Amino acid sequence: MTASTEAIIAHCQALFDDLDFSAARAWKAAEPGRKVVGFLPVYAPLELIHAAGCLPLGIFGGGDRMEVIHGDAFYQSYICRIPRSTVELGLTGRLDFVDGMIFPFVCDVIRNLSGMWKIMFPDVWTKFFDTPQNFDPEVGGAYYAEELQEMREGLERLTGRPVTDAALRTSIALYNENRRLVRAVYDFRAEAPWKAPASEVYLLMRAGLLMPVEEHNEMLAAWLAAASAEDRPRRDNVRIAIYGSFCEQPPLNLIKSIEMAGCYVVEDDYALVNRFLTEDVPADGDPVQALALAYLTHSVETSCKYVPREEDKGRFHIAQIRKARAEGVIYASPSFCDPALLDRPMIAHRLTEAGIPHISFKYAENSGQMQPIREQAGTFADSLKLWS
Amino acid sequence: MSDVVKEPSMLLQKELIARNYDAITSSRETGRKVSSTFVPGNLNELLLCFGIVNNLPEINAIQNGMRKLSGDYIMTAEKSGHSEDVCTYVKADIGMMGKGNIAPNGKPFPNPDVLLLSYTGCYTFMKWFELLREEYKCPTLMLHVPYEGDGQSTKNMRDYIVKQLKEVIIPGLEEVSGVKFDIDRLREALRNSARAEDDLVWVLEQGKRTPSPIDAYFGGVYYIGPIFTAFRGTTDAIDYYTALRAEVQARVDAGQGPLMPDGTTLSEQKYRLVVEGPPNWTHFREFWKMFSDEGAVVVASTYTKVGGMYDLGFRHDPDNPLESLADYCLGCYTNRNLPNRVEILTKYIEEYQADGLLTNSIKSCNSFSAGQLMMMREVEKRTGKPGAFIETDLVDPRYFSAANVKNRLESYFQMIEQKRRGATRAA
Ligand code: SF4
Ligand code: SF4
Questions:
Q1: Contact A339 B123 (CB under 8 A)
Q2: Does residue A53 come out as left (phi exceeding 0), alpha (psi in the -120 to 50 range) or beta?
Q3: pTM of the entire structure?
Q4: Which of A210, A257, A368, A376 makes a 20 to 30 Å CA pair with A123?
């Protein structure tokens, strides 16, 4: 019997709600010697972690369900919330089974958190993972391939086993499959958003960061099959894209509120890691080179990446908006998020030039008051309807 | 307010900076090209090779902060859609543009011919220049300097920077300036840099003396002026640091403390502090006075290392020109990881025999600020010396609460006293 979308989403919700990461703990306990490697937003090469035989575990803050007690003693009030709730996860022992932590480059807050982690948890293999801002294969590519190689060696030391090219190619193939399925879900939602509520797609994606990729691939395929077969009422909602939410995640209620306000979310940058590479990575040849080249030539535009040419700024967003046939954009960013907020005026200019209506607001992962957001999104939806 | 009393070196510096502003604002008449670039990881010696004038938007923001113009500029930027949450240097710069882009000499800044994005130690730099590029539509040369996440630089990082210098930066500057790159010119400039760096280090290390003949934070921002801006690599910088050294030597000989803005010398030094974080510029004198009134002198600071950590031994090296530029960029203070920053602060407390660590946490600056609370606790733990934490902003006057800062400082000094009494009793 195939599972219903409801059953699949209920499973995802349970994983998402579980701040003790029981499923990942169980995975680790199932076989002696297994290791879990956490990673923060926005992008890490999960293929490497997988090829090392480890479970990549997405650590995306504590959301609105976790009370931050210790974390606030680590951060001033004008710093976003994700680092403090991440520190809270660490200090409350919720990550005590995590053997390694990868802090990818996204901004100086997460960058500095990598060093704090080294001090706080000296027994955890902690890696700041830098990606190139020069996209010439000979320059940034050569640097990046070597960085990947260093990460590979770090993982080898962590596990005591080599990460072979063959294993890496297998992992790349599995993640290609994951990327294809993730794209299929996004395409499906853009096609029939009433059958794929944003909050459900979100849970489906977040759950994928908490389980082995093999399992997630099965789950995505099952969800696609179930969702296509289901009938759901179609509302007179407008189609919108959401940007600015690539790091600290909004509370699930915020995503639901946007929908309830009359918006179908047909494109977003939530939990971008599984869509960061936009095309398949070649699963033959040198796998490290393949990963490096994919990053340089086929990855999304987002605030942690430099855009070398002025004329390309925002181009990716516009193309995605057109592809998903979004009628407007909500630029929703975490409070105090320099990357999102410094980018916002530039992206807003591009949207205006392209005639795409947009609004913006800020949130925190523990925002509780949804009424103002519902009102703002509702007014935006009404205005889109009026002018379409 | 009475005039600030200045040392001869300060006057020399003032003249240097005025000359640079004149070079920038007259560039259209002189035909010289102008670049905008940042202080940390700046490539001044390279710009000199191409005859390009160096305009530093951070320095403009500081100038505007000290001249009480930045508040208005920031509001202008916020009105045009920039978030209240982001770095105020960026907004002060963008707001200044909105108000005619007037340099401190009263003449309009020309549009830059090139944005040299030396991306060292701060994420915001990247966005800042994307924002300026949108405005100026001029060539932008990105030099990506990787962060020393694991506590040291690697060969890969260095090679990457050298390659970018060769493939991107040098050809880009040749194109902008029409001048062919001459490595011997670069070597000459690097030789000049190293000489000035030697003298700067000597000056900064005098903070180890009792009484300290320098204030390494409020005075320190003057000492680093020429070398952090448009003069590293010039003979002007050599002359400035020779003069500064002589001045400090004279104070050492006389057993005197540093000169205060009111013309007195702070020779009665009750508290010796290490300060982490940039200063506030909008209330710079008031802030300084809160220290000097209490007899507190800053013996070492990290802000004076954002444009290079020469005191840890680095010197620009004419024999390895591009490699040494790479090493310079990698080693700037905010490009170092937190364990490293904690080690540096601990070392300062010990070597400069300080009473403790004061952190001035800047609302704008995630690069400096994210993690400072923990750093302070770590340093306290390692040195047994008390720390204190104050919060201000660089150039946004809305975030300087004089009463709060003063209270904090007073209780901190009391805490140091108590600690001393405790130590005496225990002895
Ligand atoms: S939410 Fe923004 S500022 Fe905070 S860590 Fe993430 S990218 Fe950095
Ligand atoms: S964030 Fe800090 S280092 Fe970066 S530009 Fe602003 S003040 Fe300077």
A1: yes
A2: left
A3: 0.97
A4: A210
